[in-house]
Amino acid sequence: MADVADAPTQLTRRRLDKIGLKAQDTSELFFDGLRVPAEHLLGEREGLAFGQLMQELPQERLVIAVSAVGAMERALDDTVAYTRQRQAFGQPVWDFQNTRFKLAQAQSDLLAARALVDAAIGAHLKGELDPARAALVKAWCTDLACRLADECLQLFGGYGYMSETPIAELWADARVARIYGGTNEIMKELAARSM
Question: The pTM is what?
Answer without folding.
Answer: 0.86
